[in-house]
Specification:
Layout lengths: L1 E7 L11 H4 L4 H15 L1 E7 L3 H13 L2 E7 L8 H10 L3 E5 L21 E4 L4 H14 L1
Parallel strand pairs: 1-2, 1-3, 3-4, 4-5
Bound molecules: 1,3,4-trihydroxy-5-OXO-cyclohexanecarboxylic acid.
The site of 1,3,4-trihydroxy-5-OXO-cyclohexanecarboxylic acid (DQA) has 10 residues, from loops.
Function: Catalyzes a trans-dehydration via an enolate intermediate.
Catalytic activity: 3-dehydroquinate = 3-dehydroshikimate + H2O
Keywords: Amino-acid biosynthesis, Aromatic amino acid biosynthesis, Lyase
């Protein structure tokens, strides 16, 4: 069964209570269990990881290569707008990935409009709320064919 690694970056552990007007009421645990269940239906194994630390995310991306992860689904949180290290890690392991944002970052502050990942991502989702994770997983399952 193909493996998909779901990575959530800083502050996404607070989903459900963090700025609910922007990010909604669904918790990260709910998102992750929903993705695991959806993965069961789609025939993919979903692995989940969240960290508030840039280096830990880089290390998890490196480990994915040894685990034979086929795709990565990543919401890098604020590191989207700052992290050359996460970009380089994703490019370095050469695992295709989808970048997901719960909010429509393009409708928000100008500093959220630039992503260090989008031009190396296979696809980018923004503004679909937490439903975006499931839509991205569905896309990935289709690409795995
Ligand atoms: C986010 C958007 C980022 O700008 C922000 O820093 C986040 C979450 C989103 O999911 O909409 O932490 O990635």
């Amino acid at each position: 069964m193909s493996k998909v690694l779901v990575i959530n970056g800083p502050n996404l552990n607070l989903l459900g209570s963090r700025e609910p007007g922007i990010y909604g009421a669904t918790t990260l645990a709910d998102v992750e269990s929903g993705l695991r269940a959806q993965g069961g239906t789609l025939g993919v194994e979903v692995l989940c990881f969240q960290s508030n630390h840039e280096g830990a995310i880089v290390d998890r991306i490196h480990a994915a290569r040894d685990e034979d992860v086929a795709w990565i689904l990543i919401n890098p949180g604020a590191y989207t707008h700052t992290s050359v290290a996460i970009r380089d890690a994703l490019a370095g392991v050469a695992i295709p990935f989808v970048e997901v944002h719960i909010s429509n970052v393009h409708k928000r502050e100008p500093f959220r409009h630039h992503s260090y990942l989008s031009d190396v991502a296979e696809a980018v989702m923004a503004g679909f709320g937490t439903a975006g994770y499931g839509l991205a997983l569905q896309y990935i399952a289709g690409r795995l064919g």
